Structure formats: C-alpha cells, structure tokens
C-alpha cells in the first residue's frame, strides 16, 4: 500500500504477538504498548530534518547535527495516551496536544468532544497516535482537525491497523504517511479489527 510502513523488526513483531494474547494482563499490556511505541517512534522519526551547528567537545570543536523541525505528539484520547510516554522518551522537547473523539456504536462515525493543540502546530512534525486503526473514521477526523490548525506535516502511528482503516485515511488524506506495527486481515461486523487484540483502551486502563 502507498504511504504505509508496516514494521518488520523482530522485536516489534514479538511484542505485538504478546500484546494480542487475551491472557496478557493490564500491567504487562501497558508495558508492551510502551515498548512497541518506543521502537516504532525510532522508525517514524528516521527522516527528521537536521541542521548543523558547532559543538565544543572536551577535545575540541566539531560540527553536530540537530533536529531542525520540532515535533508535536498528539494522542487520540483515550487509548493514544498509552503511546505518549514512549514518544516523549525519544523526543523530550516535543509538545503534546490532545484530541478527544469517540465512535458512535450505531453509525461507527467519530464524534469530537475535545481538541487542544500546540499554538505552533503548523511549524511542527505531527505524530498522531492511536493504538488501533479500525474503520479509519476517528483518525481521518483527527487529521482534519489538525490540518484546520495549519499543520501540513502529519504522520499517523498505530500499533495495529485494518486495511479498511488505511484505505479511508488515504482516501481523505492521501498526503499522510501511516506507520503500523501490524496490518491485520479485516474488520468484523461490529467494526473491530480481526484478529486484533480487543479494545486497546480497555486493556490499557483495566476497564474491561
């Protein structure tokens, strides 16, 4: 698929397999989500723009390379919160916004209830975080909200995605790259990813 990057690192695949297991408890699920997001964060920031600046080492002067374009981390509430700390571990200076959406169980369409982004979001590389990309409705809507604030460089980061969700995001936002830990088979009749891992928010926060 165009503009879709499926992680093939053995550590990511191993940890996602553990994440899927219905016997994985909340504490371990949370830890695994953090570790997978950390590994994925390394990949999805691989081509950040660098600038050169002089650096004085104990042995003399050299030219260092520093990230030029700053990062904004934007989780989709609530499940996206489970990926934020890992991204901040990699990019501590990043600003964090939040988008609150929920999926109407009848229409499967997203409903917004909160949106707070950095005031300079248009100048930043935005990493939009959500563990699951199912129908794609919430992600596509969130990307739309971010674009309305002026952002032009947005990447969507998901632990697991369904082909239907990827297709919808690219239909509405063909300019957005999608990074996924695993691309699953399909959605079931209730709009859940198969084989998936169940409800990521419930498993992260112990609200099963």
Q: Could you give the order of the helices and strands?
A: EHHEEEHEEEEEHEHEEEH
The rough form would be described as: globular
The low-confidence parts are none
Termini separation: 34 Å
Q: State the total count of DSSP E strands.
A: 13
Q: Tally the helices.
A: 6
Summarize model confidence as the mean pLDDT.
93
Helix amount: 25-40%
Describe the sheet with the most strands: 9 strands, mixed
**Radius of gyration, CA atoms, in whole angstroms:** 17 Å
Strand content: 25-35%
Structural class: alpha/beta
Write a structural description:
With about 210 residues, the protein is of the alpha/beta class. Helix content is about 35%, strand content about 30%. The chain has 6 helices and 13 strands. Strands 1, 4, 5, 6, 7, 8, 9, 10 and 11 form a 9-stranded mixed β-sheet that branches. The protein starts with a strand and ends with a helix. The mean pLDDT is about 95.
């Amino acid at each position: 698929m165009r503009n879709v990057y499926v992680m093939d690192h053995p550590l990511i695949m191993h940890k996602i397999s553990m994440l899927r297991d219905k016997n994985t408890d909340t504490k371990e699920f949370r830890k695994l989500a953090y570790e997978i997001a950390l590994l994925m964060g390394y990949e999805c920031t691989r081509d950040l723009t660098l600038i050169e600046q002089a650096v004085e080492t104990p042995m003399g002067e050299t030219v260092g390379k520093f990230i030029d374009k700053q990062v904004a981390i934007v989780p989709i509430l609530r499940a996206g919160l489970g990926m934020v700390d890992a991204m901040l571990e990699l990019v501590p200076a990043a600003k964090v916004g939040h988008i609150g959406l929920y999926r109407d169980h009848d229409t499967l369409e997203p409903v917004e209830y909160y949106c707070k982004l950095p005031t300079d979001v248009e100048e930043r590389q935005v990493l939009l975080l959500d563990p699951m990309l199912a129908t794609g409705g919430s992600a596509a809507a969130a990307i739309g909200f971010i674009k309305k604030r002026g952002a032009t460089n947005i990447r969507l980061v998901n632990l697991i995605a369904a082909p239907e969700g990827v297709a919808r995001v690219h239909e509405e936002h063909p300019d957005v790259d999608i990074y996924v830990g695993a691309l699953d088979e399909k959605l079931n009749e209730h709009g859940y990813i198969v084989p998936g891992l169940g409800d990521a928010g419930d498993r992260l926060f112990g609200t099963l």
